[in-house]
Amino acid sequence: MTRLHADEITLSYGGPQAVIRDLTLKVPDGAVTAIIGPNGCGKSTLLRALGRLMAPQRGAVLLDGHTIHRQSTKEVARQLGLLPQQPTAPDAITVEELVRRGRYPHQSILQPLSREDRAAVERALEITGMTDLRRHPVDELSGGQRQRAWIAMALAQETPLLLLDEPTTYLDIAHQQEILSLLRRLNRTEGRTIVLVLHDVNAAAQVSDHVVAMRDGAIVAEGPPERVVTPEMMETVFGIACDIVYVPETDRLVSVPRSSAALTAEPLPTPPIGRLRCDRLCCGYGQRCIVDQARLTIPAGRVTAIVGPNASGKSTLLRTFARLLKPMSGTALLDDRSVVTWSHRKFAQRVALLSQDAAVPDGVTVEDLVAVGRYPYQRWYRQWSHDDQQAVDEALAATGVEHLRWKPVDAISGGQRQRVWLAMALAQQTKVLLLDEPTTFLDIAHQVEMLDLVWNLNRREGRTIVMVMHDLSQACRYADHIVVMKDGQIVTTGTPAAVLTPALVRDVFGVESSVVDDPMTGRPLIIPEQAVTADAAVAERGGPPAAAAQRSMEWTEQSA
Amino acid sequence: MMARSTSPSPETTPPSVRFVQLGEVAFRVNTRVLSMIGVALVVLVALGAWALTLGSFRLSLQAVIDALTGAHAGDARFIVRDLRLPRVLTASFVGAALAMSGAIFQGLVRNPLVSPDIIGVNAGASFAAVFWIVTGQPSPLLPLIAFAGAVTTTAAIYLLSWRGNIAGPRLILVGIGVNAILTALTTGLVVRANIYEASRALHWTTGSVYAATWGDVRVMVVVLAVLAPVGVGLMWALRVIQVGDTTARSVGLPLERTRLALILVGCALSAGAVAVAGPIGFVALMVPHIARMIAGPMSGGVFIVTGVLGALLVLGADMVGQHALPVSVPVGVVTGAVGAPYFLFLLYRANTRV
Amino acid sequence: MSKVTSTAPAQSTMAHRGTLPAAKLGATLLLCVAALAVVAVLSLRVGSIGISNADAFDALFHYNPASYEQTVVRTLRLPRTIIGLGVGAALAMAGAAMQATTRNPLAGPDLLGVNSGAAFGIVTAVYYGHLTHPLQFVWFAFAGGLAAAAATYAFGSAGPGGATPVKLALAGVVVSSLLSSWLTALLLLDQQTLEVVRFWLAGSLAGRDVTTFTSVLPFLLVGLIGMLAMANQLDILSMGEDTARSLGMHTGRVRAVVTALVVLLAGAAVAAAGPIGFLGLAVPHIVRLFTGPDYRWTLAYCLVVGPLLLLSADILGRVVARPGEVQVGIVTAVLGAPVLIALARQRRVAEL
Predict the structure, then answer these.
(1) Which of A206-220, C11-25, C57-71, C276-290 has the least mean pLDDT?
(2) Span B163-178, pLDDT tens digits
(3) How many domains does chain B have?
(4) In angstroms, rounded to a whole number, what is the distance separating the alpha carbons of residues A102 and A116?
(5) Which of A144, A390, B18, B60 is the most exposed place for a label (fewest CB within 10 A)?
(6) Over chain C, what is the mean pLDDT?
(7) Residue A287: closest C-alpha in chain B
(8) Is some CB atom of chain A closer than 8 A to the CB atom of C18?
(9) How many Cβ pairs within 8 Å bridge chains A and B?
(10) How high is the pLDDT of residue A520?
(11) What's the confidence (pLDDT) of residue B15?
């Protein structure tokens, strides 16, 4: 049975190029369906069409056999709720008020809140665990709580069908798990049909009964997760080879992308310059101190990853090292000299930063943009030199964007753009390279590509690399040295194998996890667990644990 | 020392970019932009010559040239040298200064829809000038007062926007607020004035180069001679600011110092032009767009193109206002009537990112 | 199993923001009504001629045409007070509604170009139609304001990303500039026209005929009542396009109705009193400090606080330049623009 059905739909945003062409999807009732795919494959567009936010150029979205766009909007909203990506609440609205607005499709104009409305609001607050926070303004909640408040609003709508667009973006692993398990529970205990767009393939496999893999506006594969999330499928969908790792504790299969870099290469001998250190450092924004009394030495010539939950002060620390924030007290040192006493130019010749908030000026070509990185070597009377040209050429070559040299930056894809920004930082020819979440907006293949590039820079040229990272497994794979932060404090530092244990992940992130060996490096892989009990999940999924292990063995053999 | 002009291998440089080095001094030149500057200047000179022939007393081109070279004495010489030439030069210089000022402000706040007339610089000049007019003060000082008004207003906007740094959007919004206050106060002054002064004030706030003198020309020559080269130099830093504050700082640009320098130069260019001609609308807003469209992203060269195009526009608009319409209309009315629809068109077009 | 700790966010910031409980909101609203009554009485009394309470009372209820004081109240002060009440409420509610539909804290009827549109309509009518009496201005002001608002909204919301705050603000500024450029041309050509309209161009409650007001009163009432009825819709609309639509709202239709109501309100206000700046922008922000995001309360407060502030500004204008007076439009712009500047300084404007 299927209530929601996309029938040969074609979607476009007005341009000549269709985002989705002749796509058919039957959403299985009572199941959790996850839509996955690389950046720009049209997964969010599809979800918007299913949720009636976009009308297809051709074909139709059917709800119970009737075209959804011809039905009354309120009628549809009683059957089907959609939570957009990153919704924004009005200023100062309280959780309860927000949830109450979910009752809109059940109310008529000028009608006060009915008893059913109140009951539905209470139920939604309770299911999401927001009852205690009901009087809090939504914009003061943490990321995970805010997301729960929005889900509560969608629940109060009391629709049998619920669509969510990337509900876990920007959340740390604990909050991701929290949201995924909540959705899972909604499906299991209330029988709601749930459709999610997800970024993270493993999360999709973990939470869903049905996975839809998309590429270039078409469905490449769909079916139960163990059938879709396979090495072959990952290669077809994302264009990247993967290993499948079996997690015995939870009987789960996890796909791990393969890196093309020589990850076992030893670092070069420690260079004399490029050392960062801080001592009793306090820093933050305005009057607010975010990083408190930090004491840290970052080894020169190594890759260091800073990890921690949301709002733990990772980026703040990095930005202080990059001299973007002034220390409130204590010191941040570059090569034994306080970063604030360096001249602008000399500092920029030694430290480069790849930040998240770079602007893309209109019409500027890739080469011109990379040339901006040469600023610290230039004077107003000497605006260009042969050294500059050489540095730009090398940076373009190292990041593999030479062929884009004369293209305007606003005309290239997100993955390419991130490499161009990296090229700009490289043209600065610094000993130290700081990267603030360099993979946030990238899909898995582009993530690996980016990190491999950074890795090679370290192993071939001995640059000191410091990255703020989101994904613990990636941090383990690429970092020589890990810094774990929580609540503005540095919890611990050391090698990945020594630092990242399930106990630490529990203490710092507040989530249980399993650790398995990375098939490429032998370093730990951190697999967070869902909040529902493993047994229940297995029972629902069907099949004994041994069967999954068996499948894993087969794939490992095939891919070897 | 010898000028060395190298043309590197084709895959490293597109055909139109040349690398020029003269000892320590070295930079890249876009020959396409260079040729555009040349063409625009030629057109400007031609238009100027044409403007000198027009008027109630028509002259042939030969007569104009004779008058300029001093071959002729008499009426023609007086009309060309003392009446028409100052007006033509003032219109051109004012246009150039306004357009360059617009290019600086747009780059500074990274918003292509901003200009000194929207963020209150010109409203400051207007308020000061109208105050001067309605209180019946001596008119020779009027330009100085208008200049002071613009500078004071810019200082106020700068200080009100300062919160540890100058963020572009904040500068715009504060500017819109300041603009509103000053416009209201100006209206208040006009309402309280007698009808003759009100009319004069209105005329001034529209912007015109009517009755320009050699004194005006001298002021504008000084303003441009000092500020235009500084502006060209600052474009080098502006290019870095375009990429975002964080990046600009991490490549070692002293951000707030550079911004202050840009605001000072932009304000002085605009204030100089407004002092001489009154606030001529839309030149500052519109011309940088045209320049970017035909010559590419803003750079030192494109900045010069902007200036020349600004001169062309104001000179052309003044000619239209003076000769093409049944009644003589101040140049500010013409630029506004042409500029605003064009601006709305830009806003409407999909590629204007705000 | 994972333990998820829901740590409560800091309590400290709760005190000065967010919603007051309904009972307190109601009581505060009553206080505002009382204050409005006081200000209305002051508005009858204060001016170049001081009027006693008794005269004001008599003028209202036992009018004696022979008394000079009572005549002043009846023919001058009473009309401007009534117009102030209506215009203040209209502008404040129009501002609140604009801010909700555009989700833009900087929206207001004047940023939409309504005022300069109205001015343009009037100047055109005076120049070509040789109107002389403000009474005849009403319909031209109304039509001009309507057209200008429509143009601003169309240009500001065109292109990718829809009506971003900065885009809309700039479109408004430009439409206003375009209209004032044309308007200036007409005024420069004809000093007579300038003489007729320049007093109108500075918004004022003074010297307006009460019949001007009564002729736009129906529109005003439709606007006010209609807007109050739309409060619930505004709540949902302020959640953003996607959320509102997935809650089953026909956003296009609701937006059109709200915008029409805004233009009715703002057009009626500008026709009755001339351009009065920044009241529509500032009042909703002040009101929201008490009411929070709930538009039922916000609109109710606007209905009272708008006239309260407008009449106060009007009285201020009468007092500061005695025996003359400063037009209320100038007072509100001078007092209101700092609110905009303060907002710009306070908010993280990059997000706007």
Answers:
(1) C11-25
(2) 877 777 788 878 888 9
(3) 1
(4) 13
(5) B60
(6) 80
(7) B164
(8) yes
(9) 94
(10) 83
(11) 60
Q: Is B136 within a domain?
A: yes
What is the average per-residue pLDDT within C156-181? 71
Touching check for C193 and chain A: CB below 8 Å?
no
Q: Give the model confidence (pLDDT) of A363-383 as tens digits.
A: 788 988 999 999 999 887 788
> C23-347: which CATH topology?
ABC transporter involved in vitamin B12 uptake, BtuC (1.10.3470)
**Ordered strands of the A329-334 beta sheet:** A288-298, A276-285, A329-334, A337-338
The CATH number assigned to the domain holding B186 equals 1.10.3470.10
Domain that holds residue B155: 33-347
Closest CA to B300 of B231, B198, B253, B215: B231
In a domain, B38, yes or no: yes
Best residue in B131, B286, B325, B343 to probe C by mutation, most C CBs within 10 Å? Answer: B343
| Pairwise CB contact (< 8 Å): B246 & A378 | no
Instruction: Note whether C329 contacts B181, CB cutoff 8 Å.
Output: no
Q: Would you report the helix, strand and coil content of chain C in percent, each value rounded to 5?
A: 75, 0, 25
Q: Is residue B248 part of a domain?
A: yes
Residue B354 lies in a domain: no
Say which DSSP state B82 is in: I
With a CB-CB cutoff of 8 Å, which residues 527-556 of chain A face chain C?
528-533
Domains and CATH numbers, chain A: 4-229 (3.40.50.300), 276-501 (3.40.50.300)
pLDDT at A540 over 60: no
Question: C 14-73 residues with CB below 8 A of B?
Answer: none
**Nearest C-alpha in B relative to A380:** B233
Interface of B with C in 140-159 (CB under 8 A): none
> Which of A18-32, B296-310, B333-347, C289-303 bottoms out in mean pLDDT, i.e. has the lowest?
B333-347
- Name the residue type at position C135: L
Chain Cα centroid distance, residue B107: 14
Per-residue buried b or exposed e for B123-162, using 16+ beta carbons within 10 Å of the residue's own CB: bbbbbbbbbbbbeeeeeeebbebbbbbbbebbebbbebbb
- Name which of C5, C104, C243, C343 to mutate to probe chain A: the one with the most chain A Cβ atoms within 10 A of its Cβ: C243
| Contacting residues of B for C182, CB less than 8 Å apart | 333, 336-337
> What are the residue boundaries of the structural domains of chain C, listed by start?
23-347
- Residue A327 is encoded by which pair of tokens? 């220390």
Taking the Cβ of residue C306 and every Cβ of chain B, the question of whether any pair is shorter than 8 Å is answered with no
Phi, psi at A61, each rounded to 5°: -100, 125
